[in-house]
Design brief:
InterPro entries: CHP02574_addiction_mod. By secondary structure, this protein is mainly alpha-helical. 54% of the residues lie in helices and 6% in strands.
């Protein structure tokens, strides 16, 4: 489950059954914590006799090794985990968007909306933004 060499991106998946994991994947680009992570993984998959969880500072340090985009994903997921009742099910979100897309297509086909070209739309948007900035 480790990387073969230091140039390879190492994907480590914490077992979803482990309370500290929340099913997160850590994309590792170096080997500073590889041994500690491997020990943690072995313990979490086999039993709870090994380390129970990575310490917060170890998670933080590992997070700093991620790219900015990867850190944003992890931060968002961790924040969302604090209030799971506020999260929407992806299927529900997809259904709402499908209904909205269908409604917009119907409006276009029935002539209920006036379509403009890109240049006109961009000019209108810029004018609105300029007005807001004043």
């Amino acid at each position: 489950m480790g990387c073969r060499d230091q140039r390879e991106t190492c994907v480590i998946h914490l077992g979803a059954s482990h309370p500290a994991s929340a099913g997160l994947r850590w994309l590792r680009r170096d080997h500073k914590l590889e041994q500690a992570q491997r020990t943690f993984l072995d313990a979490s998959v086999a039993s709870y006799t090994g380390p129970m969880a990575l310490k917060a500072d170890e998670v933080y340090e590992a997070g700093l090794d991620l790219s900015r985009a990867e850190r944003a994903v992890v931060a968002h997921r961790l924040l969302a985990s604090l209030h799971p009742e506020q999260g929407a099910d992806q299927r529900e979100v997809d259904q709402v968007w499908q209904a909205e897309i269908g409604s917009r297509v119907d409006d276009i086909l029935n002539g209920n909306v006036e379509l403009g070209n890109f240049e006109e739309t961009r000019a209108t948007a810029r004018a609105l933004l300029d007005d807001l900035r004043k």
